[in-house]
Amino acid sequence: MTNGDWTRRDFLAAASAGSLAAATSGTIPAYGNLTKKAGKLALLGGEPVRKNKSWPDWPYWDDKVIESVTKTTKSRIWCRIQSSTGTVPTFEKEFAKLIGAKFCVATGSGTQSLHTCVEALGIGPGDEVITSPYTDPGTIASILSARALPVLADLDPASFQLDPDEVEKRITENTKAIMPVHMMGQPCDIDRIMAIAKKHNLKVIEDAAQAHLAEHRGRKLGTIGDVGCFSFQSSKVLACGEGGGIIGNDEALMDRCYTVHNHGTSRRGATETIGPKYRMNEFQAAVLLGQLPTVLERHARRNENAAYLTARLKDIPYLVPQKLYEGTNAGSYYLYAMSYHKEHLNGVDRATFLKALSAEGVSLSPYIAMGLHKEPWIDNILKSRVYKRMYSEERLRKYREESQCPKCDQVCQEMAMIWASGPLLAPKEDMAEVADAIEKVYENRDQLKAV
Fold it and tell me: Which ranges of 313-367 does DSSP label H, i.e. alpha helix?
């Protein structure tokens, strides 16, 4: 068997919680070629660890995807309202089953899914929703679109997730919900978030846009809060260019989500409420359906490769993998994220480190340059006529004062990540070269003084 091939036994082993346990215990064997780590850094003219190699192509497609799209094209059923058995209704049933939820409503994007849920829960002008500053702008857009106030709480800098203590500090009499974001596809501290929500009688909208198939204490992310929202944008581990999905177990709430996303028209055909037109089209669902037969195999491979990298990096102090909370069984590994600690690399700044590693053939990215608390949208809404009408001058003044997230700033300054949807599907020898390159830079860190 080659390193790129998998047997059923390999798949089942990697899909189990043992992968993550092995990562933390350091029992996964190293495959690195130690001779590659000796000598001059490639940035200074030495031989790179990884040379003239590419990563697996992304987005993923195969013949099943092509067949599914072709079938939909020939059917002339291109809109979900044409058929109750078309690709969108079929995908909704299959995705709900895959995640372990009773219901699913498919939308045109992850942002649309989040906004649909905000509206379906009756959250609007004068209300507040607590969420993360370290996320895609779509998270706060879903709240702003309902003319509610996105309240940003700071992070746990080791996990890059919302700090529950900071969440609780932000709760006011106008808080209606918490929107935790499972960053990088790993579970946030969801047990504590749910406990806080229960204590204060708040709804929980899980932003699981990056977290397909991730598990916490045996529960798939998205099934733990009142509703869970996913993105199927082209970079995601399950992708169709643009697309989103809402999952939940509360039939009445999910029925409201359907009504909202269907321009306020219910399954009964009556126009009942305010709602945008957020329906997923049949071609998006066709692309997704074509991937479902093999999505678990790719999920397992990412978890196995991530566990291997984590084990290899356990003794490298300058690059620390994302902290996983107790109860994490599996991640989606949309990103494989690490914190860069320059004090362990002779004080070399992150930009120089990234250049050194890139020269070795391994490119990492800082990801989000700055948190949403530093983006100009805050000044925009504080000056807007609409928000001045809906919120008191005192509340808006205090909102500006409280929109400081120093731990998020720290994460933005330290982040170094591998975009993992494609790269973490590579064979094990590629993962070994990633680890070799990181080790080489560390072992030859004194050479960086000359850069």
Answer: 350-359
- Do 134 and 279 belong to one domain? yes
Amino acid (one-letter) located at 65 = V
Residue-wise pLDDT for 160-179, tens only, equals 999 999 999 999 999 999 99
Of the candidates 293, 322, 356, which is a domain's last residue?
Answer: 293
205, 127 Cβ separation under 8 angstroms: no
Structure-token pair, residue 128: 């507040």
Q: What is d(CA 154, CA 93) in angstroms, rounded to the nearest whole number? A: 36
* pTM of the entire predicted model: 0.91
Can you state the angle between helices 428-443 and 350-359, rounded to 10 degrees?
130
Q: Are residues 246 and 364 in the same domain?
A: no
- Residue 258 Cα to chain centre, angstroms: 24
**282 and 332 belong to one structural domain:** no
The Cα 429–Cα 118 span in angstroms is 45
